[in-house]
Write a structure and sequence with these properties.
By secondary structure, the chain is an all-alpha fold. About 75% of the residues lie in helices and about 0% in strands. α5 packs antiparallel against α6 (about 125-155) and α9 (about 205-235) runs parallel beside α11.
């Protein structure tokens, strides 16, 4: 995949942007708590505003990419991020809430652009492996980004940390704009001129099934993070939570690389169902060494599940609306991340920490079942006109 022209540079620059974007919530949290000396609840409000903006902005920015072009959208979002992060240290809390929502709404769409470009730069046979590599990139960003911010906060002021995160986001967005990767294949170059197909033609049962499973996957993953912390806090070993999370992330990287090398894909509903099943018994572990072992199974299935979701979206979306479809995928995943922690938190409060793993796993199973039932209602003929060559609707 790295030998595909332009692929290595795209993944390298987007990794910088995605790593910084995964760290933005942590940077703002530390700024509110340490810089403004407010409560963690206040910091959570800023984080929620930013996350809500990202969730709502995904389809908007994707539609703009479809109609206005990639560089225009990147220029607008980069300028907004420059203004926001430079002004963070001088904004009162109330204005920071509003500004965080706007910054999320117009966040540099590094993840969505990477997925669109991968779909345009690869053949149908290469795409699964390419999206597996993109999922590995995402896992690396989640491992590195927040950890770097926490380490920097120990030696730098929260203002400087926020500026550093903002600078990395801006540099990544500007780098992608300079690369200007294609978002449509050569055979799809006239898709924009042909007009946008109505949503009812592509946002049907099949696409709804994929978006549901995207939502369920991140709901599970967000819940697992909280369940890990709760389990180790009950055992008096909360300081080991970072080690368990790193083991989970490394396992996901390994799983993504293995899945990308396989010769045949697996259906998304099956991967997500297996992910839910292996997550539930992780609650049986009561100390950090066994918890490290317990999360390996979930980790190995995480990147493959995310990769198949991205692959299915790229295959089902016509070229003229691929930006909007990819934005909807990002929104579904952001919504899952936002819901997973509260859902699992309630389960932990009314039961035990093991209940958190059970709730997360059951959420994944429910999404897998729903996606499977919806996909069976989607006739294969509806997707064929948009994608020359074989189309596998076994998601």
């Amino acid at each position: 995949m790295l030998a595909v022209p332009g692929m290595a540079s795209l993944l390298g620059v987007s990794l910088l942007a995605r790593t910084a974007i995964t760290a933005d919530v942590m940077a703002l949290t530390l700024y509110v708590v340490l810089g403004l000396e407010l409560s963690y609840a206040a910091a959570g409000g800023v984080a929620a505003a930013l996350t809500a903006g990202v969730a709502l902005g995904g389809p908007l920015l994707g539609r703009m990419i479809d109609s206005r072009g990639l560089r225009t959208v990147l220029l607008v979002t980069v300028v907004v991020q420059v203004v926001f992060w430079l002004s963070v240290p001088i904004l009162p809390y109330g204005f920071l809430l509003v500004a965080s929502f706007v910054a999320g709404l117009l966040m540099v769409p590094a993840q969505a652009v990477s997925r669109q470009a991968i779909a345009a730069m690869t053949t149908a046979e290469q795409r699964r492996a390419a999206f597996a590599l993109e999922s590995v990139q995402g896992e690396l960003s989640y491992i590195v980004g927040p950890a770097v911010v926490i380490l920097c906060a120990a030696t730098m002021s929260p203002d400087v940390v926020a500026w550093g995160v903002g600078a990395a986001i801006v540099a990544g967005g500007a780098g992608i704009a300079l690369l200007n990767p294609p978002v449509r294949a050569d055979a799809e170059a006239d898709a924009g001129a042909a007009g946008r197909p109505p949503r009812r033609q592509w946002l049907g049962a099949g696409m709804t099934a994929v978006l549901t499973m995207a939502f369920g996957t991140t709901t599970l993953l967000s819940g697992v993070d909280l369940a890990i912390v709760a389990t180790l806090q009950e055992a008096g070993q909360v300081s080991w939570a970072a080690v368990v999370v790193v083991v989970f992330g490394v396992s996901s990287v390994v799983g993504g690389l293995i899945y990308g090398a396989l010769t045949r894909p697996l259906p998304t509903w099956l991967l997500l169902g297996l992910l839910g099943l292996v997550t539930i018994p992780a609650g049986l572990a009561h100390d950090w060494p066994w918890l490290c072992v317990a999360v390996v199974g979930s980790g190995l299935l995480t990147a493959p599940t995310l990769a198949t979701v991205a692959d299915a979206v790229s295959r089902l979306a016509p070229a003229g609306v691929r930006g909007e479809a990819t934005g909807l995928q990002s929104s579904a995943q952001s919504a899952g991340f936002a819901l997973g922690s509260p859902l699992v938190g309630v389960a932990i409060d009314v039961s035990v920490p093991a209940g958190g793993f059970a709730a997360a796993g059951l959420a994944g199973l429910a999404a897998a079942l729903t996606g499977h039932l919806l996909s069976r209602r989607s006739p294969a003929r509806t997707a064929v006109p948009y994608h020359p060559g074989p189309v596998d609707l076994g998601y």
